[in-house]
Every structure is written in C-alpha cells, then in structure tokens.
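Quick check before the chapter quiz. The format below is the same one you will see on the exam, so make sure you can read both the input and the output lines.
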Amino acid sequence: MVKGHKTNNHDSESGATELSRSP
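Here is the expected output.
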C-alpha cells in the first residue's frame, strides 16, 4: 500500500498511522 494514498485516505486505519509518522 502506498503511504501517499494513506495521506488522502483518512477513512482507513492506516491513515491514522500515517499521521503519526508525518511530522
């Protein structure tokens, strides 16, 4: 799964993880 897509997909649980790694 692309992390970049996760940024736009906040609906996915992975999106929340993406926010944690993003500064």
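If your answer matched, good. The chain has a mean pLDDT of 57.
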